[in-house]
Design a protein that fits this description.
The protein has four helices and no strands. With about 180 residues, it is an all-alpha fold.
Length: about 180
């Protein structure tokens, strides 16, 4: 949708009689096109990361979530650059572009809403990472207690075996002493 608006804006800029302004505006349109292409690449990268499930249970691992969050941050930064570029180009436009300004403002609002959505998604991913880290810490604490219990059990079993060996040896010594008398 934004591409069509940008193309429409680019066409209007191209047809404008002031060539000096047309050149500036075409550079701005090229910049916006480049920003949009970069954003599209980031969005495709996000969709690829969103599809990956590389943890043991077939869900997203911490690294997957971090990749998703970093990609979402990139998208947010790119959207912010786009919004800034669009706003900068809007400042220099003449009053004859009021309808185009309306469409651009609408798209800016849509992009700002999308930025908010991605920010909330990034916050949710951060919370999921924190929950996963807590679970990992609990799991390592449980493993430590489990290993400690096994170690204590081994020492107790070894102690009991040693005590039984000494007791049997003592019984044999008493029998041999009693039979020698």
């Amino acid at each position: 949708m934004l591409r069509y608006i940008l193309l429409l804006g680019g066409a209007l800029l191209f047809l404008h009689p002031a060539n000096a302004q047309t050149e500036q505006k075409s550079q701005a349109a090229e910049k916006l096109d480049a920003l949009m292409d970069e954003r599209d690449a980031l969005l495709e990268q996000y969709q690829e990361y969103e599809q990956t499930n590389s943890s043991f249970w077939g869900t997203k691992s911490k690294s997957d979530l971090r990749n998703i969050i970093s990609t979402l941050k990139g998208i947010i930064r790119k959207d912010t650059e786009i919004v800034r570029a669009v706003r900068a180009s809007q400042v220099n436009k003449e009053s004859s572009y009021i309808t185009q300004n309306h469409f651009t403002s609408k798209r800016i609002n849509e992009l700002e809403a999308e930025v908010g959505k991605y920010q909330s998604l990034a916050n949710r991913r951060y919370k999921e990472i924190a929950d996963l880290e807590k679970a990992a810490n609990k799991d390592s604490s449980f493993r430590f207690k489990y290993h400690l219990t096994i170690l204590i059990s081994i020492f107790l079993a070894a102690g009991m075996a040693f005590f039984a060996y000494k007791y049997i040896q003592l019984q044999r010594n008493q029998r041999s002493a009693a039979s020698a008398m």
